[in-house]
Every structure is written in structure tokens, then in C-alpha cells.
Amino acid sequence: MLGARVERYQCRFPVVRALNPTVAEEADMASQYQDHHQFYVCRQCGYQITAPQWQIAVGESHEHVQCNPFGITFVFGCFSEAAGCGVIGAPQDAHSWFPGFFWRIAHCQQCGEHMGWFFAGNRDPFFGIILQRIRLQDTPTQ
Fold first, then answer.
1. What are the chain's domains?
2. Alpha helices, H only, 20-94
3. Residue 109 contacts by C-beta under 8 Å, 6 or more apart in sequence?
4. In the chain, pLDDT over 70 holds for what percent of residues?
5. Are 83 and 34 spatial neighbours (Cβ–Cβ below 8 Å)?
6. Of 26, 30, 85, 96, which sits 20 to 30 A from 42 (CA to CA)?
7. Mean pLDDT throughout 10-24?
8. Among the ranges given (31-35, 62-66, 113-117), the one the predictor scored with the smallest mean pLDDT
9. How many CA atoms does the CB half-sphere of 77 hold within 13 Å?
10. How confident is the model at residue 32 (pLDDT cuts 50, 70, 90)?
11. C-alpha to C-alpha distance for 45 and 28, rounded to whole angstroms
């Protein structure tokens, strides 16, 4: 059922295809990670989420502290790519922390942990990854 919901938005939001990869695309993502010495993994299960070289500044800062309408405060970092995240839900503009951007929930593709949000809008799309949900890991030596 979840897959059908994600597929429905792929024609309107083509970036979703890259965020919900096929097996071949996952193999390609794995090779991208092999070129790097460090990456961020899901704190819950250890799945590769993103890498330090994909950190970006949005609104002049990589790190943001925001509170949602329920009073929950999140500290998150902005990343241009987060290949280990899937994206679910309809794009929302209500309560967006970034004017001109719609947000969707981003989750770990392995364990389903809520990792943050995917923002798309009038500028380049990006991920806001909750910093407490990831940890930096060195690439194992061979």
C-alpha cells in the first residue's frame, strides 16, 4: 500500500524515483559510498544514509533548530543527497520551515526510522536530517 502512495507522486515529482530506488539503483548508490572515507548511518540500524560531502547550507546555515506545531523541537542538518532515505506522504506546504518549499517525511529505507524531511520547491531540493538520528562512521578498511 505504501509503495502505491509513493508511485502516485512520481509523475508530479520526478526526484521521488531517485529517493525510492530499484535494486540496480541501490547497487549504484552503494558504489557512490565506497568512494568516500566517512558516511552518516542510521543510529537505529546502521544503514548508510548520507555523507559529509553532501552537507549544504540552506538559509546560510547547515544546522537548523525548528519547532513543529506540536511543540516538538528538532535539530537537523541540510544535505543535498540522502540516498539511504525513502520519502513518503503527499507534499505539504503547511508549517514549512522554508518558505517556497513543500516537505515530505524522510525515513531510513532499511528500518523505517523517521530521519527527517525532504524539501522541494522553488530552489534545489534538499533533505533535513535529524542529527540525533544519524552517526558518523568511517569506511571499514579492506
1. 2-138 (2.170.150.20)
2. 23-34
3. 47, 84, 85, 86
4. 73
5. no
6. 96
7. 44
8. 31-35
9. 19
10. low
11. 21
Closest C-alpha to 102, from 113, 115, 89: 89
Q: Which amino acid is at 15?
A: V
Residue 90 CA to residue 133 CA, distance in Å, equals 23
Asked if 75 contacts 132 with a C-beta cutoff of 8 angstroms, the reply is: yes
CA distance 118 to 103: 6
Confidence tier at 139 by pLDDT (50, 70, 90): confident
Distance CA 127, CA 129 (A): 6
**Grid cell listed for 123:** 530552489
H or E element: which one contains 17? helix 15-19
Separation between Cα atoms, residue 74 and residue 17, nearest integer Å? 27
Residue type, position 80, single letter:
S
> What residue has cell string 547497487?
27
